[in-house]
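Async update (no meeting this week)

Hi team, since we skipped the sync, here's where things stand on the single-chain job. The sequence we agreed to prioritize is pasted below, unchanged from the tracker. I ran it this morning and attached the output directly underneath so nobody has to dig for it. Comments welcome in thread, and please keep replies under the output.
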Amino acid sequence: MEILLKVILVQAILLMIQCVLYFGVEIFEGKPHNVLTRIDDYLPFSPCWVYAYVLWFPLIAVFPVLTFSANTAIYSVYITAILADIVISTLIYYVWPTSFERPVPPETFTGKLMKKVYEGSFRGVNCAPSMHCSMCYLVIIGCALCPELAIGVRLVSVLVAAAIVLSTMFTKQHAFVDAASALPLAALCWLIGQRLPAQWLVNLVTA
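Output:
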């Protein structure tokens, strides 16, 4: 139980770091670039996808706990990759801020939830690369490289992560470029996680 609490604490600290950097960098960003392309014209605005979008929070909270229980080495790489993702993404946001005009959600319960998601970023910037997407890609990579995870866990995690990536575009919270640019970033961050000596993290949690 003590180890589980430490794993949860690590997740809480990561979330705090992400919030501080994500919202903090918005204060200093200049005029954002519009990242919409012709591809986005073919992606419909479908507010019902917001229910998939909000699954990001439980996915990011639960997946590392399950991974730690299955394979501490993969857990170390994953957490290090997540931290690298947060740092690199916020640096990109500062150097090249991006945004675009969101549609007006309908006056329904789903539409109001969609509006709350839009209001989550007070300036509506920090789009490319999408951290929602890059972290989902890291979950998918983790599932592919961690056979110790139960097949059901891997299947559900991959399906949920894929649905979240699609939801970022169908809710118009992100553009196609945001989701596409997140993929190479996730691959880079996983390589960073593999190269850095992350065993200290497991030692810290299990101490």
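Quick observations from my side:
The chain has a mean pLDDT of 89.
The longest strand covers residues 33-34.
Reply here if anything looks off.
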